[in-house]
Design a protein that fits this description.
With 744 residues, the protein is mostly beta strands. The chain has four helices and 37 strands. The chain has a single domain, classed as Maltoporin, Chain A (Beta Barrel). This is Iron complex outermembrane receptor protein.
């Protein structure tokens, strides 16, 4: 482990003594049935939960109370008490030895989230605006590390992504997002050292329900959502179904670029007994997106309003599909077996154009066309046991998981004519369309990867101490072949193996005030060879984290504070003796602290606050621009300080504004460097969001279930750009979406 800052070490030690709140059991806010807290386990006992009223019953919470991808439970408003992501068990979040945030369905609905980046916008430790507005990918950073390719999980299984074949998540089809910050290799194997996002799919519930959304917004946005289901008639309460879908047709502020989508996700649950559950999850999604989201960059880090995409060659079409299941059987209350499986496929055509240079009144352009396909299989087998040895209570979970993917790419580069800019004085109104024939796809590559992991975790609880010990060994095999211009095929094979682990200790100072500390390691294989033809060794890393988790007794108010130090080593850098090659000797350090508070004060009244201080620097690295060392430089595009807050207020029944809900949020991103050479800084950016909604049942009970909602993002239309690694991206302008919702 590399040397760490003594200042941070002091901070980490201090966190064990810090904090100002304490927690207790969530209080029931009403005695009626709340639809968004019906659990699958309630099949024969009837629906259970607390009510918030028709205007706030925002979705069906179908999360199973068991671990293994079942999703968060103990949800009230924006708060959640349990999520299996951190431990693959039902350990309360306050007793887990890492930072965890849950974005619940009610929060997703209130903010009318349209993609994963929006879902994470109010989560501490995340950087979601590094690449500006880009509807093509869920691209974000956690604690300064990219999570796009190896940090996204779906129902506890890693979502493989390679090249341009990156599966997109439809937020309306999700029940919740759980963000586990810090290394997760001890349980999940390959993953971002900054953390992972585990997305829980909506699942069937054993109570009839339904909702439809009709939406319209600026940029000719029209969208319909539907979600309905319940028990299968005649099944005697053993079967349930769910059908969720989205249909969208929309332009964007990128000239001539679409953001169209069709998504449908049927699901089915069979529960023959209280001890056995099988849930089948499926999805098909078709998207039409822009081939590029970039604007031409002028010298000196100036992003112009000249859009690089040509509407005649800019339709990125992608189809994705998945089918899988979640199986659980309880041999006894203390011995549980789970098996989660998923097959995923992604196919896409990716045409694009780019402006390489502007000379006089001529824009010189180039382009490319990529056709990619990705098929992935993921399987996780778990066995969880509970037992005691004297005064110590043990929760042990062990398992074997397997992930395989096959990826193919074929590509070619067309001849793209130059663009005549004569007479153009306002690029915001400049429109053009060029006929560009598709090129021959005479180059390509294929890649396959197999990962097998064996893991074991012990959680031992003795009096006020909770000790978490997690260990895992992975074997990864990866083979790649490529050819160019229909030439000879070249190939390589690489094998890696590594042991990852986590040590964590929580101390229940009170049941609601819990200091903790943990140490965790991570690894990630790296494709390629050095100048001598030797494969790169896997990137490895570790994290020290300490903090305190709290909640106020008899309320739904929770909070946490954490300090962390992550070092990732053996990352690729330019070979100082051969600039045409790379060596795996670079390293990077991310350190800082995070604070958050989440509260549900009353039905429809919630608040979430987050603060992050982040310092991400290269310990050893070489500039790809100057070929000079940039040791000690900050990683570009990652804000040093971020502050976010979002809240809603539901006017109570009986008031003259009964039925009205208002809300708003602020997102502040501090300054960051625009390039890794640290020559120019990005300015600070503050954005505001807003919510206004009305429940028509307040006018007359016969309108029960009808709700109107208006969401605005970047309300004041802040014009901003962010630069990362020397390239600048435009942020999204003001966006307004109106929704008419009916629930039954």
């Amino acid at each position: 482990m590399l040397h760490r800052s003594p200042i941070l070490s002091a901070l980490l030690a201090a966190t064990a003594l810090s904090g100002s709140l304490a927690s207790g059991e969530a209080r029931a806010q009403d005695q009626q049935v709340r639809l968004d807290e019906i659990a699958v386990e309630a099949v024969r006992a009837g629906p259970q939960g607390t009510v918030t009223g028709a205007g706030v019953a925002t979705s069906q919470n179908s999360s199973a109370t068991s671990g293994g991808g079942g999703g968060p439970s103990g949800v009230t408003g924006y708060t959640a008490r349990v999520s299996p992501t951190a431990t693959k068990t039902n350990t309360p979040l306050i007793e887990t030895p890492q930072s965890v945030t849950v974005v619940t369905r009610e929060q997703l609905n209130d903010r009318n989230v349209q993609d994963v980046n929006q879902a994470l916008a109010y989560v501490p430790g995340t950087s979601t605006n590094v690449f500006g507005f880009d509807p093509r990918f869920d691209a974000f950073y956690i604690r300064g590390f990219s999570a796009t390719y190896d940090g996204i999980f779906r129902d506890g299984l890693r979502q493989s992504a390679v090249g341009l074949a990156v599966p997109r998540i439809e937020p309306y089809g999700t029940e919740a997002l759980t963000i586990l910050r810090g290394p997760a290799s001890g349980l999940y194997g390959l993953g971002s050292p900054g953390g992972i996002v585990d997305i829980t799919t909506k699942r069937p519930v054993f109570a009839p329900f339904g909702e439809v959304w009709f939406q319209a917004g600026n940029y000719n946005r029209f969208q319909g959502n539907f979600d309905f289901g319940g028990p299968v008639e005649g099944s005697n309460g053993t079967m349930a179904y769910r059908m969720t879908g989205v249909v969208r047709q929309s332009d964007t502020f990128l000239p001539g670029a679409s953001d169209d989508r069709v998504n449908i996700a049927p699901a089915f649950t069979w529960k023959p007994s209280a001890d056995t559950t099988l849930t089948i999850l499926t999805e098909f999604q078709n998207s039409r997106l822009p081939g590029t989201a970039a604007f031409y960059n002028a010298p000196n880090f100036r992003v112009t309003r000249l859009y690089q995409g040509d509407p005649g060659f800019n339709a990125f079409t992608q189809q994705q599909y998945r089918i899988g299941y979640a199986f659980e059987h309880k041999f006894t209350p203390d011995l549980i077996f789970r098996q989660n499986f998923r097959f995923y496929g992604v196919d896409g055509d990716f045409p694009y154009t780019q402006i390489d240079n502007v000379v006089g009144l001529t824009a010189q352009r180039s382009g490319g066309f990529f056709r990619e396909s990705l098929q992935s299989v993921a399987l996780d087998n778990q066995l969880e046991g509970h037992f005691r040895t004297g005064p110590v209570a043990h929760t042990v979970v062990g398992g074997v998981d397997y992930i395989h993917y096959d990826w193919t790419r074929r590509f070619g580069f067309p001849t793209v004519p130059d663009l005549d800019l004569t007479g153009v004085s306002d690029f915001t109104r400049f429109r053009y369309r060029t006929f560009i024939p598709r090129p021959a796809l005479d180059s390509g590559a294929t890649q396959s990867q197999d990962q097998i992991g064996v893991y074991l975790q012990e959680q031992a609880k003795w009096e006020r101490f909770v000790l978490t010990l997690t260990g895992r060994h992975d074997w990864v095999s990866q083979s790649t072949t490529s050819f160019a211009n229909s030439g000879p095929v070249t190939g390589s094979t690489q094998n890696d193996s590594a042991f990852s682990y986590r040590l964590g200790l929580n101390y229940l100072l009170t049941p609601d005030f819990v200091p903790y500390a943990s140490y965790a390691t991570t690894f990630s294989p790296q494709l390629g060879t050095d100048a001598n033809g030797r494969p790169f060794k896997a990137a490895t890393g570790d994290q020290i984290e300490a903090g305190v988790k709290v909640a106020i007794p008899n309320t739904n108010i929770t909070g946490s504070f954490s300090g962390f130090d992550i070092v990732q080593s053996s990352i690729l850098r330019q070979d100082p003796n051969n600039f045409a090659n790379q060596v795996a000797t670079g390293s990077i350090e991310s350190k800082g602290f995070e604070a958050e508070m989440t509260a549900n004060f009353a039905p429809g009244t919630n608040v979430t606050l987050a603060f992050t201080h982040l310092d991400v620097r290269f310990l050893r690295q070489t500039s790809f621009v100057t070929q000079a060392p940039i040791d000690g430089n900050a990683l570009s595009g990652i804000p040093g300080n971020t502050i976010s807050a979002f809240g809603t207020y539901q006017f109570p029944a009986g008031s003259w504004l009964s039925g009205l809900q208002i809300g708003g949020g602020v997102r502040y991103a501090g300054t960051s460097f625009a390039d890794d050479e640290n020559t120019v800084r990005n300015p600070t950016v503050t954005l505001f969001d807003a919510l206004v909604a009305y429940d028509f049942a307040a006018l007359d009970p016969k309108y029960k279930g009808f709700r109107a909602q208006v969401n605005a993002f970047n309300v004041f239309n802040r014009d901003y750009a962010t630069c990362q690694a020397g390239f600048c991206y435009r942020g999204a302008p003001a966006t307004v979406i109106g929704s008419l919702i009916y629930r039954w």
